[in-house]
Every structure is written in C-alpha cells, then in structure tokens.
Amino acid sequence: MAYTLDFSTPVNSALLIYILYSVQKIVFPSTSTPKTIPSEFKHGYSWMPKEHPPTVLFKTYTPKTLEPFDGKNGGRILLAINGIVFDVTAGRNFYGPDGMYGNFAGRDASRGMAKQSFDLEMLTAVDQPLDKLQDLRPDEIENMKGWIDHFSNKYIICGKLVDNDAA
Amino acid sequence: MTISDYLVTDDLTVLLGFIGVSVFLLQNLYKPQPLVHPILLGRQSDAGRVRNPGESAVYRNYGTGLMGRFPVRPDKDVNVVTDFVKPEFDAPRTLWSTKITNTQLKARVSAFGSGIAKLVSEDSIVLILLNDCIEFIITDLALSEQSIASITLSSPKLLARVLEMHPPNAIVTDKTFLPYVLKATSDAHERNHTLIVVDWSQPSEIPIHSWNNIESEGKVPQAPKNAPQPGSAYTVSFFETPSGGVQCVQLSHENFTSGVTAIKALFPSAINISTLDTIVSSHSLSTPYGRAIAYAALFEGASFATLPSTGIFHDGDAPALDVADVLSATKFPIPSPTVLFLKPEHVQSLTSSVIDRAKKSFLFPLAWRHKFASLTEGFVTKDSLWDRTVFGSAREDVLGKMADTVKAVVISGGLLPSDALVPARLALSIPLINTYTHGSATGPLFATHAFDLQMLSSSSPATEPAHVGAPSVNVEAKLISVKDNVVEQGADPIGEILVRGPSVGNMLSADGEAGEKNAWVHTGGTARVMTNGAFKVLGSM
Question: Which segments cross the bilayer (chain B) (predicted)?
Fold first, then answer.
C-alpha cells in the first residue's frame, strides 16, 4: 500500500510548524527571567509575597486617646487592663458596640476585670486620673492577673496606658 | 476550494499528529519538580504581631514559631561539652591526621585534664594560642571538664591587650608561635604564667612544659572536684569587629550545645550529617562558630579537618582563600570530604575555576541553558545529562576526588554577592546553604533553606548581597533604628540586627563585666527583611 505523504497540505504544514517550534523550545529552553517578581507561587518558582505580615506599632495611650477605639465606626477595638492595652478587634462579638462587654471598649477595664463586673460604675471617666486600684482585695488582684494572662494569650498587646498628662 | 479541501488529511497527518501530541506532552509534563515547594519559601520566618517604635517585629524561624521553645541540645543526654564525645560509639575516625576512637579521645581528654589540674589551680585562666589541631580540641575539652576558664583569640593582634587586661596563669601554644608569645609577654611584663608548648622536646632555660608530658602525667585520672554545669561559662572568646574594635564574649556549655543543634538543623534529613561524613571547615577553632562545627563533627562521629587558611598564629602571610586552599584538605589522611564549610571567597574561586574548565567544551552554551532552565523551576542535580557531559568533568578537574563525594556546602564568614549565586549553583550543583555568623554566637544566626534555589533579583539599584534566609532554629532577631513611617507604608524594614538565643553568648563589657543573661546582642550588621521573612544582610554599620 502506498503511503501518501504530502507536506504541502495546510494541516500537515501547520502540524509540522508546531512540531518544529516545540522541539526548538525543548532543545533550546528560554533563559529569560521575568522582569517583575511574581507575587503568587502559582506564577513562578521565584516568587515573593506582596506584603509583610501585618504588625501593630506599640503605642502609649492615655484615657483620652484610647476612648475613640471602641469599635463604633468599624474601627479597631482596644481595651486596657492594669496599664496594658490589648487589641481585641478579633473579639468584636464581645467587645464591640453590640457585644456583652461593650462597656469596656476604649476604656481601662482593670476594676471590672478584678471585680468580675461589667457595670458602668467600674469605669473611671476619661478626664480623671487612672484608677489606682488600691482598694482591691488580694483575690481580686489575682483575678485581674488571670484575666491579663487570658488576654495575653488570645489577643495582641499593642500598647501601654498612662495618665492624661503623663504622655 | 471548499473547507474540506483545506482540511484534507493523509497518513502523514496521522504521523505528524502523533508526534505533535507527544511533543506537547513532553514539553508540558516533563517539567522537573522543585526540590522544595515554593509555598514554603514564601513564609520562612514567623514574625511578631507587635513592634516597638523604631524597631521591627521579632522574627523567629518558622519551624520554631514565636511560641515555641528553642532547641538547646542535639540529643537529650548532651548537657556539657564533653558529652559530645559519645562513649558508646566505637568506630575510629580521623581528626586531622590522628585516627582515634571516642573512648581513646575521652581517655586523652581526662589525662590532659588531670595533668593540667596538677599544674594550675581551678580558678585560673588558661590562654589557648593554638592553630587548629587535635591538641586544641583535647585542651579545650579537658579545661571544660575541669571547669578551668580558657581564653581564645580570633587574631594575634589581640594578644597584647588580653595579656594586659586578663593576665593568664598558663599559656598553651605551639613551637612556631612561641617566640612571638615570649616577646609579647616580656613586652607586657607578664611573668606569672606557665608555658605549655605542643611538640616541645628540647630543654630550655625558660620553664616550658611539654604538652605531651602533661598528658602522660595525668595518666591516672583524677575526677574534677566539681562537675561542670551546662549553664556555667567555661570559655571567653575575643574577636575584632569590622570597625577595628575588640569585643569579648563569654560562652557556656549550653551555648555550644545549642550551636551544634543549629548546625545540625542546617541540613535537611535528605543530606544530614552522619558518621559516614567527613567535614572540612575553613573557620578557626578559636572562633565560637569554628569550634561548634568541630563539636558537631565530634558528636556525629564524622571525620574532621580544617583548611590551612584557618591558621591564626603563624608568621608570614595568610594563605589566600581559593581552590588550592580547599584542595589542601585532601592532604590529611581523612576520607574524601562530603560537607564543606567555606567562606564566600572559596566558593567564588571554585565557581570560576569550574566554569572556566567547562567553557572548554563545545556543549557548554547548551548545557548552561538547560541547567539554568531547570534552576528557574527550582530543580538542580549533580547527575543530569549535562553534568555527565560538561560540568562533571570540569568539577573533577578542579576538585579531584572531592567532586564526587561533596554533597553540601555551607557558606559563612562573609557576604556572598548575589551575582555569584546562580553560577555557583550551576557549577557545583549541590545544595549551597548561605549563612550569616557572628563572633558572639556558636551557631549560624541566619541560614537559608538547603534546597532554596530562588532567583530574586533585588529591587534596589545597588547590587545587594545574596539573602541569608530566616533566623536559625534557636535564634530570634529584630532590627533597630528602623524608619517607622517607611515601614507603616509597607516597605521592608532596614536596620541594625539584634539577636538573642541560647547559641548567642554573653557579651562582656570592656572591663570584663558580664552583661545580664539573655540580653539582645548588637551584631553590628545592617539588614533588610523581605516579605517572605528572609533577611538580606547589607553590610556592617
């Protein structure tokens, strides 16, 4: 049986051109590196993430500067215990405006944590000096320290709280 | 002509179609697999969530994690430095030119320890001014066992100052350096010390003890009065900073066990160090890092030797850091080296020699293209077709028998230029681990992943050195003097490196006061942290 071999048919030429092109790419691979480094690992082996992991700057807050961070406009939620400021934005359900403990957002919650109470009378007004916590019993101080441990493990420590005129 | 006339097919079409499909499959499916998945290289260190103003966050190795404990010992029974010599391991191995088993080594160490305990009291200071040799290791282990403090120097220029500030009770040195020592001690009007000299046999008018005599005097071993504690410092190392200042660091047993753990962690399980290996180092035993490499070799039961360029105490010029230096390791009766701890100059010299030899082959351009293409996919191997035809013979010409046996190279003690990285990876085709070390730490402070082959061209116009990877498994690092406004915008933090960890020793102040334990140590180097958590050391302050 005679084989018909006709290179001039369009299909054959197209296939031939494709084969020659691919063979050329296999035997002479490209050595160009992309001009911009890809930001996804799917787009290349030599890749870099676009951004650094987020970090929070440790700041010194006063009761007045801490107050805006109560989550009311969808912003960060901060609360302070014993001079340590925690970023509790992750716990918006608890500490947000609609949460059970929303009273503490943006305020010094030390007394409330010690006495295990969320009443408004546990909070000191923002223009007053910080609550010295001198009249707390030792077991209340222990309770407050326990809460500090709990918060340190669950949330980020992002600042310290000082008096309004000490900043 | 109708469409069907255009699409006429015949037997050739079938053949071409078959070839086309196989070529397509070959091109797309025959891509080599990367040695390490790129997703792991995108998150090399674990960064803290909070940072102080003017500083960066604290970074740790991703494997250790911010909450993890630092690994402090390579094995649960290794608490003090003499535990590195495991008595249950019996096979002999060669240390420089001496073939010795662990039990024999332990016996020699206790003999020398007992001998020297008869000569100097327990609270004395011994200055070790030896080039790398087995006597150095025996002296060091013996002094640590007897809890006698020792001092080592990274350069002979520091001798005058050390004699002045911390007059030693005994000096251990060798024959060639002895005249220099005698001159330095007479200059410093230092008389109250004993001289112990290696290879000393002739009588002299100055009271000199021979090293071998002390070892033989201690043949009846006396157990030391107090067993050494892991946390207690037993040696002090003096080193020079790049700006010319002198710093000294106090090192304890725990620093060295952590250093050995960090060195072992450099090698993934596919290429880890074992008793079948031979380690060759270009870092002097008088530096903490060099000594930790030697202890790692001792611990694993590998043979060990150092290059002539590590010699600190010699007259004349230091040997150049090049291929001849690397090849001189083969003069020792050790098995062919498998792991090399080299400096960047050695690696650059090796790379240029191998590539010069490889260029002589007419297949070189094609081989280079193919290896480069597989490098962009993250894969490199010593046994590819192109190595068998071009690079393999070039490596054999340059390195001799070593070319076959070397399985990894660790680069420390300098900054490797980034344009030397790709040629080195292609020429040597083995894992190259780029590290950053400092005179105050026993282990590497930063190390790249062994199989990291990424080619990340730097965005800044100046050519930066190659990156050194994430902090080591038991080191945490942060940068200070960082521009806050730049970092808040999302740019890379650039600042001075501070490190802390069990492998970083306790820096002593100028008058010998120890600092507080576990304080941050200023390394004096500037670095930039990249978004994937790898550090790029830019230079010294």
Answer: 12-30
CB-nearest partner of B20 from A15, A55, A58: A15
Find, among B98, B81, B439, the residue nearest to B283 by Cα.
B439
Which residues 42-81 of chain A have a CB within 8 Å of chain B? 44-59
Task: Please say which residue of B233, B257, B281 terminates a domain.
Answer: B257
Q: How high is the ipTM of this complex?
A: 0.82
Contact of A58 with B50, CB cutoff 8 Å: yes
Residues B324 and B264 sit within 8 Å (Cβ to Cβ): no
Q: Does A148 touch chain B (CB under 8 A)?
A: no
**Residue that is last in its domain, among B257, B290, B317:** B257
* Chain A residues with CB-CB distance to B454 below 8 A: 45-47
The answer to whether the beta carbons of residues B402 and B337 sit under 8 Å apart is yes
B496 inside domain: yes
Supply the range of the domain harboring residue B534: 41-70+343-540
CA torsion A61-A63-A67-A70 (nearest 10°) is: 70
Contact between A55 and B490 using a beta-carbon 8 Å cutoff: no
Helix boundaries (H) for B68-125: 102-119
Structure tokens at B496: 């001075």
With CB atoms and an 8 Å threshold, state whether A55 touches B12.
Answer: no
Are A37 and B456 within 8 A, CB to CB? yes
Is residue B499 domain-shared with residue B469, that is, in the same domain? yes
Q: Are residues B135 and B237 in the same domain?
A: yes
Task: Looking at the structure, tell me whether residues B101 and B227 fall in a common domain.
Answer: yes
- Indicate the pTM of the whole model: 0.90
Q: Which of A5, A51, A56 sits opposite B12 (nearest CB)?
A: A5
Structurally, how many domains does chain B consist of? Answer: 2
| Closest of B89, B74, B79, B84 to residue B109, by C-alpha | B84
Residue of A57, A87, A156 to mutate, interface with B, max B Cβ within 10 Å: A57
Nearest-CB residue to A22 (from B13, B23, B52): B23
CB B169 within 8 A of CB B217: no
Residue B270 within a domain: no
Secondary structure (H, E, C), B205-258? CCCEEEHHHHHHHCCCCCCCCCCCCCCCEEEEEEEECCCCCEEEEEEEHHHHHH
pLDDT in tens, chain B (541 residues): 566 666 667 778 888 888 889 988 888 887 888 999 999 999 999 999 899 999 999 999 999 988 889 999 998 889 999 999 998 888 899 999 999 999 999 999 999 998 888 888 888 899 999 989 999 999 999 999 988 999 999 988 888 888 888 888 889 988 888 888 888 888 877 666 778 888 777 777 777 888 888 888 887 777 777 788 888 888 999 998 888 888 999 999 999 999 999 999 999 999 999 999 999 999 999 999 999 999 999 999 999 999 988 888 776 777 888 888 889 889 999 999 999 999 999 999 999 999 999 999 999 999 999 999 999 989 999 988 889 999 999 999 999 999 999 999 999 999 999 889 999 999 999 999 999 999 999 999 999 999 999 988 766 656 789 999 999 999 999 999 999 888 888 899 999 999 999 999 999 887 767 778 888 999 999 999 999 999 999 988 7
Cβ distance B10 to A18 less than 8 Å, yes or no, reads no
